Amino acid sequence: MAQIVGAITTSHVPAIGRAIDKGLQDDPYWKPFFDGFPPVRKWLAEVRPDVAVMVYNDHGLNFFLDRMPTFALGAAPEYRNADEGWGIPTVPPFKGDPALSWHMIESLVAEEFDLVTCQEMLVDHAFTIPMALLWPDLRWPVRTVPVVVNTVQSPLPSASRCYKLGEAIGRAIESWDAEERVVVIGTGGLSHQLDGQRAGFINKAFDRRFMDSLIDDPKWATQYSTLDLVELVGTQGVELLMWLVARGALNGKVRRLHSNYHIPISNTASALMLMENRG
Ligand code: DHB
Ligand code: FE
Predict the structure, then answer these.
(1) Which of 65, 71, 124, 216 is deepest in the core (most CB within 10 A)?
(2) Gap between the Cα atoms of 95 and 141, Å rounded
(3) Domain boundaries defined on the chain
(4) What CA–CA distances, in Å, run from 124 to 12, 69, 76, 117, 186?
(5) Which of 9, 10, 11, 12 has most ligand 1 atoms within 8 Å of its beta carbon, as the pocket-test mutant?
(6) Atom 11 of ligand 1 has which residue's CA nearest to it?
(7) Catalytic annotation on 262?
(8) Rounded distance from Cα 193 to ligand 1 centre (Å)
(9) Which one of 59, 103, 192, 262 is the catalytic residue?
């Protein structure tokens, strides 16, 4: 049976892509951010996962406001990045894993998560930037399965629902009859607000509490409604729902192997966490 080796959760600010492209990793502004990643890369090189299940929010590239699934899952043989109007440099295509995708779809729908299934799918910065941070040579050693959660257009799924989706994803992966190692990657957050009067809003105390909660008390954040979360972490900070999905997929005791928190990158409290799944 497949094994979930752990979860990696990280911010996905598009400006990171520009910094990578311009080689600014040692620039004083960027260094404290990029310095978070080598321990995670080392772990990945040791654990060598075969597949990455990428939990992220599409920002209007593959799904626009006219058709907005609450949850969607990719089942394509390949995923490509597309320019989102920011002049983002494109990266090599990502291999899919249709066998795992369809197994997950079967399992999740059987568990009453009625998601949209996508046999074609473009992936945006929330998918590509974490991949480029984790595998900076851009020679992706993993196949990928995209899982998209709506955090763009109200109403959003609740924190509680997202955690349950994560648990169901965990059961789906672990019931896959294949000797494969799977890493779950959740991208987004932490606190940030890009628009309105509170643009630039960051809540360090909440972010820290949230990160700690994922280790020992992972349902802590499910006490909050999505409107509570918007107030606490900003309109885009609700992307922390992706962290809840990823954490939910880890079935038992979890050990924090590494974390980093740095304010700000662009308008965002950038955070990174590596959690080992102890089964
Ligand atoms: C920023 C953060 C995001 O999560 C995003 O999707 C786009 C921009 C930012 O801080 O600039
Ligand atoms: Fe985002």
Answers:
(1) 124
(2) 9
(3) 3-277
(4) 10, 16, 15, 17, 14
(5) 12
(6) 266
(7) no
(8) 8
(9) 192
> Which position among 12, 59, 103, 125 bears the catalytic label?
125
Look up 258 and say whether it is catalytic: no
Mean of pLDDT values over 27-51:
98
Asked if pLDDT for residue 161 goes beyond 90, the answer is yes
Q: What is the percent of the chain with per-residue pLDDT over 90, rounded to a whole number?
A: 94
Q: Which of 195, 266, 270, 272 is the best mutation target for the ligand 1 pocket, counting ligand atoms within 8 Å of the beta carbon and taking the most? A: 266
Tokens read off for 40? 């995670």
Superfamily of domain 3-277: LigB-like (3.40.830.10)
Taking the C-alpha atoms of residue 206 and residue 202, their distance in angstroms, rounded to an integer, is: 9
Name the packing angle between helices 226-233 and 204-216 (round to 10°): 130
Q: How many CB atoms lie within 10 A of CB 37?
A: 21
Q: By the 8 A CB rule, do 271 and 211 touch? A: yes
Q: Which two tokens stand for residue 9?
A: 């959760």
